Amino acid sequence: MNIWRQARWLEDIIPLKKGFKNLLHVLPYEDEFKDVDVNHYLPEKIVRRDIDIPAYPELEVVRHYVRLSQESYGVNTGTVPLGSCTMKYNPKINDVVVKNEVLEELHPETPEELVQGLLEILWELEQWLKEITGMDRCSFQVPAGAAGELAGALIIRQYHIDRGENRDEMLVPDSAHGTNPASAAMAGFKVVTLPTDTNGNVDTEALKASVSRRTAGLMLTNPNTLGLFEEHIDKISDIIHGAGGLLYYDGANLNGILGVARPGDMGFDIVHLNLHKTFSAPHGGGGPGGAAICVKKELEGYLPRPLLTRSGGRFVWDYSCDKCIGMMRVYYGNIIALLRTYLYILMLGPQGLREVCEVSVLNTNYLMKKLLNSGFYELPYGTRPRKHEVVFSARKLKKDVGVTAEDVAKALLDRGLHAPTIYFPLIVEEALMIELTESESIYDIERYVEALIEIAKEAYRDPQKIKNSPKHTTVSRLDLAKANHPRTLVLSTKYLKESS
Ligand SMILES: Cc1ncc(COP(=O)(O)O)c(C=O)c1O
Question: Is 134 inside any structural domain?
């Protein structure tokens, strides 16, 4: 079959024949390739002669997809207060810029000299992130926060090996995100868990008792996952460095201190930034995200390669790797997420970034006060002001009427609202982890608080009604294990036969 005959065949199944013909006209290289028989290059057994593509009227197709799009919920539709995720508004100008045709067609192998403008943007972005974090060098070789953690843990390992020290323990607080211990374990460390004290800080007495000549480092996020700033961060830094270890900053919660405080000034040696969180690249549904790993001067040699450098007024990739940890991925990061980050910082400027932090902290504390006053939800670890997020507990509801955090989350869906993160951090029973970000208005915050209060009242009146929710969503309660397909356990071959 000739390629252009195939195109005419396609034309037949598309109702708008005329428009399609015009489209074909603008296809490049039409003349050059019009006599090429593509099948000539394909093995006979894979050539498809009859293709049974279903044909539907255009209007039916349009309605189907519009309906599907209306069933999706995202930041463009309403509040997404997923704690630890920092789901903020992605300014539309970002989309306009990253949809640039030239960018879309750029091949990752494009020679440096043809992309000097883009490299200059990446260079400038690195300078800004260094300033924001208080670090000396950054790499965008890591595609996500967890990859940054792994890179950081590998750097810590290599650093100690180079010093001839056998340090095989990584300290991680019990409030940490699961990726912290996982990354440390992947880098070959034994994970030592640190308890949280009654004020929501790392228990410094336990920390003192845990450090030894085996301590490689401590992975910490500050503010922590309770939304609380570590009150003893100076002391923690002294203890870790005094024991010969390094301090790793999990930047997932940077929104809570952005433009106000810097990990580098708190004593951290390595920082990862979840660019898709703090700097607005959308990452719902698992990506595509972007991240950076930044280090202090003495650790620069360990950063993954290539590093972007300047030589004779040009930007070049430096692949030299005496002691670097290698590459974390092919090519250099997710350019689209990096560009969104660049635009976000460019638009806001230093004062705007500080405001991002201030408004997100204000929003969180406003919600915290209102919800606390209702008396329905408990606030573990005291009432001192939170930073970017707050973690309530639905323990009382569960004890009184059997309604759990999961039930509350499902009831929110029936009210047209997105659920918060639930059951994390693990140190809060029946956790409801709410993060509002700077994007949300007072109207949206109040609506959210009212919904949570209304659900609690309903739970006391008719708990089963809450337990039966959601009723107004496309699908009702899903089997949590099966909903996340890879976790579905197939326990017998009998099941496989029956379902095939
Ligand atoms: C506190 C914390 N650390 C690390 C991560 C991992 O980041 P990423 O999802 O970018 O891999 C997350 C993700 O939600 C997080 O909340």
Answer: yes
